[in-house]
Write a structure and sequence with these properties.
It is built from 2 helices and 19 strands. It is mainly beta and 324 residues long. The chain folds into 2 domains: 2-91, SH3 type barrels; 101-319, Beta Barrel (Porin). Strands 7-8-9-11-12-13-14-19 form an 8-stranded antiparallel β-barrel. A 6-stranded antiparallel β-sheet has the order 4-3-2-1-5-6, with no helix packed on it. It has a two-stranded antiparallel ribbon with strand order 15-18. The longest helix has 16 residues, at 2-17. The radius of gyration is 31 Å and the shape is rod-shaped. The protein starts with a helix and ends in a 5-residue tail after the last strand.
Length: 324
């Protein structure tokens, strides 16, 4: 009887000195162990209840669901953006490894835009200045505010699906020209863009923090500005123009909160010119591009290639799966 009690006492003392850790794999396997070291890529451990327990083994973090320490602390790798390696979480009975999460981001991007000048704006400008050598230029740089939401697809968190609203206000001289002809002739045009994107992303590295994205988008834009020609000064207020654009790019997750973004894409957008009638502010009129050649009305091409780079700050929200 004394020997039996002594064995129980020794087992109890052993469990206090060497608490049992458990590694839960994403495959469903469970490893009873003594965790030696956790890194960014691998976890080192000793096996318990094994004839080979003296050896040190490793397992890739990519394959691990969670670590349950004998002390009661838990590291959960099922939500990599929410729980980075080294973070700790005490799981409650209402938390399931299959829970989903949404990632909400707000970002700011710097953009460079190469406008496709295949419209009749230059013909219009040359006609009203009686000069066939004039060109139309503009400011190609602008900022944009990006609001996004996305969620991972599947347990591996390698695929992402989401949506983004991009707000763009181009500079007031996005399209501009000036010329001395019977006084100073001048034009300045700008746009206000609302881009609604649906995007798909796939991580391309082991740590899953470098993600390539594909973004088809719907563009809605308004054009404003003014045109000053010998006929008078005209306030432009045109649109909305509706079109699409497509972009590809990369996101690099610097941390679970901060991401740097790069995109390159092609925009397709044309807006028909419309201006306020100087004689009646409630009436809108349009210009002919060059009435000596044809009766084509003036339109402005805001399409072309663009590139952007920016940063995003993210917040997270869990979506319970409903499983207990």
């Amino acid at each position: 009887m004394k020997a039996y009690v002594s064995c129980i006492f020794l087992l109890f003392i052993t469990n206090i000195i060497y608490p049992q850790d458990t590694i839960f794999m994403k495959s469903g396997a469970r490893i009873l162990s003594e965790i030696i070291e956790t890194g960014d890529i691998q976890i080192k451990y000793k096996k318990l209840n094994s004839t080979e327990s003296a050896g040190i083994y490793t397992v890739f973090i990519h394959d691990v669901g969670s670590l349950h320490y004998g002390s009661g602390k838990v590291i959960n790798y099922d939500w990599p953006e929410l729980y980075a390696p080294g973070s700790e979480k005490n799981l409650s009975s209402n938390t399931a490894s299959s829970d989903l999460f949404m990632k909400f981001g707000i970002g700011l991007s710097g953009n460079y835009f190469n406008r496709n000048a295949s419209d009749n704006l230059r013909d219009f400008w040359r006609y009203h200045n009686q000069n066939d050598k004039l060109e139309v230029g503009g400011n190609s740089r602008y900022m944009s505010v990006n609001l996004s939401m996305m969620a991972p697809l599947g347990a591996t968190k390698r695929n992402w699906l989401g949506a983004q609203l991009q707000l763009i206000m181009s500079p007031e001289d996005a399209i501009s020209a000036a010329n001395e002809y019977i006084g100073l002739n001048e034009l300045k045009l700008r746009t206000y863009h609302y881009n609604i994107s649906m995007f798909y992303g796939h991580s391309i590295n082991f740590k899953k923090n470098l993600i390539v994205f594909f973004e088809p988008s719907l563009n809605i834009a308004m054009m404003t500005g003014f045109i000053k020609i010998p006929m008078g000064d005209f306030k432009v207020s045109a649109g909305p123009g509706v079109s699409s654009h497509f972009a590809v790019g990369l996101d690099y997750n610097i941390s679970k909160r901060f991401t740097t973004n790069f995109r390159i894409g092609q925009r397709f957008l044309k807006i028909e010119e419309r201006h306020v009638n100087p004689n009646n502010a409630t009436v809108y009129s349009r210009f002919y591009a060059n009435p000596t050649v044809n009766n084509d009305l003036l339109f402005v091409n805001w399409g072309g290639t663009y590139a952007s780079i920016g940063f995003t700050y993210s917040l997270y929200a869990k979506i319970p799966s409903g499983r207990k």
